[in-house]
Design a protein that fits this description.
Radius of gyration: 29 Å
Strand order of the largest sheet: 1-21-20-19-18-11-17-16-12-13
Bound molecules: adenosine-5'-diphosphate, magnesium ion
Largest sheet: 10 strands, mixed
Helix content: 25-40%
Distance between the termini: 54 Å
Structural class: alpha/beta
Shape: globular
CATH class of the domain at 111-170 and 395-666: Alpha Beta
Number of strands: 21
CATH architecture of the domain at 111-170 and 395-666: 3-Layer(aba) Sandwich
CATH topology of the domain at 111-170 and 395-666: Rossmann fold
Strand content: 15-25%
CATH superfamily of the domain at 111-170 and 395-666: P-loop containing nucleotide triphosphate hydrolases
Amino acid sequence: MPFKRHILRKTARKLAKTEGGEEEPTEEDLPELPVKPKEVEVSDLMKGFEEYEKEEQEMSEEDKSRIRSLREEYEKGLLKETAEAGAAEAVPKVVDFSRVTDSVTGTREAMPHVETKEFAEAAKELAKAAKEMAKATTAKKPDEDGRMKNIPLKAHKIPIQYVKTMRAEWQPPDFADVNAIYPLIKPFAMVNLKWNQDRNKLEYLLIEPHMTAEQKRTLKTLKELVVDLLDINLFEIKEAASIRTVLKEKMNKVINDYGIILTEYEYQKILYYMYRDFLGLERLEPIMHDPAIEDVSCDGVKVPLYIYHRKYGSVATNVQFEDDEELNKFVIRIAQRCGKHISVAEPLLDGALPDGSRVQATFSSHKDIAMHGSTFTIRKFTRDPLTITDLLHFGTLPAMMAAYIWMAMEYRKSILVAGSTATGKTSLLNALSMFLPEENKIVSIEDTPEVRLPHEHWLQKVVRTGFGREDITGKKQGEISMYDLLRAALRERPDNLIVGEVRGKEAYVLFQGMATGHAGMATVHGDSVDAVLHRLQTPPINLPSGLLQHLNIIIILTKTRVKNIEVRRIKEVVEVLGLSKEHEPIINTLFRWHPADDTFEFASDKSYVLQNIIEDKGIEEKSIWEEIQRRTRILEWMSANDIRYYIDVGKILQQYYKNPEAVIKNI
Ligand SMILES: Nc1ncnc2c1ncn2[C@@H]1O[C@H](COP(=O)(O)OP(=O)(O)O)[C@@H](O)[C@H]1O
Ligand SMILES: [Mg+2]
């Protein structure tokens, strides 16, 4: 089907002329454009192939043959399944997120500015509590009366039939057969995920419409002219949808005024690149549309961008920045999108894009900070958070360990998730939070909204950064810190407090909350129990050791390689029992991961946390282990049946609270 040649030749008016005093053309003067690209829907990939092939004159031989062979395979039906498998599988179901967003903005607007008077009072309150606790800890010698504040120091042995080595359900994926193709932005951008035999690795090959040299020139000119016509800075606009129309109108005007002649396909294609570059994240835009991608990272110039794919893990792309200038321009651009600033003087960026994706970047003009120039990582905002089912599939933890944590959470134990950067702390925290009973009042407090829960009774609070100069207390006008939010949250008497990441004085309030019966959960940076305990007790966190004993469990995550594949594992689950005479925390490592054979095992024959539940709730010892066994079965069943979407997972977990027998019967 040949494309019609649409001639947009209303050459008469040129911008030069309008500048010369003539009236600007009105909307009516502009011809109706023959196509409305936004509405063009190409239902299958075939059309995409056809279109690329039409433009193949200047395409590299490699591209040409790739598209040709893809097409052949597609026609033979070979690719259909993989295409679906790649995309469909990861496409999140539509969720109503208005509630979440409302609660975010609601919190931001409704939060009162904390008065200095209250601050002083709170400080007094906290100091008093800390003193009492310190007294309590020095008074009690753990080995004398055998009991600390929360946790008994004597525990029965775990019944032997439950002590076993656990293997994660994980299988190293076989990449050699992978050849998936699916659209990213229909019909313009698609991806081919393919095993590269020569390089012996999986590659993420982004395919975008090919541009001839002339088309490239046209696009460049159009961009410049459109920029001149825009009286607003597009970079500052956060609402892409509303600006789309403006952008298109301006482009149409330029095309018309300059009498630029384009075919229908050329027009669409150019409009695609205009949208992509003005409104999107340029060449990263299509990648950002892939629901299977978790994050995108760039380690510098002339290095391929890497993506993290839900199914395939870390994969190299065929996209890269060729020189410093190009990369730096891009990094500045993302910073602007985050409403932040990055430069040689302020080379570190930690921000969030308007869609909620998190960005971390370093700026380097002379290869001074990072070796290969500027770097960035974009962690995509996802409406489809990882669930416990995903983590079981990934082999991050075995079902029994999850069941143990579930049990502890039900009985309001406080948990810290620790690990180095990007070890999956936030994801684990979120997945675990779904274990909380629906009736619980949950308050989450974060710098950027990452936690996503199916719970009705969940209040999501997000820190608001201030503006202007810092005042005498070190705060900016309008700033609402984690500390403020936590203090306000405690007044709301939540059952569970979730803190995205503890870094400073907010830890004090969190632990204070734990001390007064609110179960706390948070992530903290640190790759071992010692590192975590040390971090908590030294500046800037500076937690008095007396407060430490209110913490019950520390989970240590690690990112490493198993069978040469990057994986995340729970390295240790550690119970915190209390403090020794010397105020040293007493710990019990319950589970440990063995890197050599990728298994998990009991590192202790006692669980003090469970013992505490047994004693406090008067539960029989045997039945607590039977219960853990039952929960293990449910988790395994969810995993076997691939019930992974967070709403579905949430439903089953909640059903189990209400009617355990019914759920067990069903599996
Ligand atoms: N258990 C896991 N297995 C595989 N990938 C994971 C796992 N947990 C998290 N991820 C991915 O790793 C990246 C970092 O996760 P995140 O939870 O934000 O880390 P952290 O909070 O430790 O910095 C995300 O892209 C996330 O999707
Ligand atoms: Mg995190």
